[in-house]
């Protein structure tokens, strides 16, 4: 039987693991936690690369795995949900995890991508593409809400509904700000082609806003337009930047993306939209 996922060449698989700084191990909860935490620390959520690739390489789809890994290594890039979640899914599948790629609905169907993995007869949600502190797999067999708190934000995973769907809700300062509905049906990446192409439209969210986020076990750093947020489990420190020059410097300082690349794409942005709307 054909595998439901592309088989990665050994060289690319080992390169990905090397960039994460982890050793290849047999599938386990401990090994999976290590990979997810390394991904969130070393491969940020960011859309600088998306803007840059659109402008200079005429990309309107999913960049190749080689380009993804080149971006991590050379420019400290990461990606948005499709890129980060799809390639982590591919990595885990090729490492032997029982995993499936799944769609998630926001304001429109299938505009987000997640994975669901089964370990020791329990199913978990994996999402490294939501700019969120999901540092371990999130349990799906819930009887009550499962919450993660980071500074002013609280993420709540609800018990499955009658269709087996899982709702994620983001509360900021106690107010529901955003969320999605993850659906357990296995999918193929080509089913999301039109959604990915649409994400490069001139009016798309990440063509009109900046969002970068990196997560560690004890802290997080995020830049949303002209706001820098440093958070831990109890509080968030917020800095408002004065102009685009300060924004470029903050991105260099906190994410190490080269100044010339950042300045090149930031100067083309007009009104900075709210990435969470």
Distance between the termini: 43 Å
What percent of the residues sit in helical stretches (DSSP H or I)? 25-40%
Number of domains: 1
Strand order of the largest sheet: 5-4-3-2-9-8-7-6
Strand content: 25-35%
Mean pLDDT: 95
Content-based structural category:
alpha+beta
Question: Which CATH architecture is right?
Answer: 2-Layer Sandwich
Number of alpha- plus pi-helical segments? 8
Radius of gyration: 18 Å
Main β-sheet, in a few words?
A: 8 strands, antiparallel
What is the CATH level 1 assignment? Alpha Beta
Shape: globular
Question: Are there runs of 5+ residues with pLDDT below 50, and where?
Answer: none
Report on the architecture of this protein.
With 277 residues, this protein is of the alpha+beta class. It has a single domain, classed as Arylamine N-acetyltransferase fold. The protein has helices at 10-20, 29-42, 48-57, 65-75, 81-94, 193-198, 244-255, 259-266, and strands spanning 45-46, 98-105, 112-119, 122-126, 138-139, 146-150, 153-157, 166-172, 175-182, 211-215, 220-224, 227-231, 236-240. Helix 3 crosses helix 8 (259-266) and helix 7 runs antiparallel to helix 8. The protein starts with 9 loop residues before the first helix and ends in an 11-residue tail after the last helix. The mean pLDDT is 95.
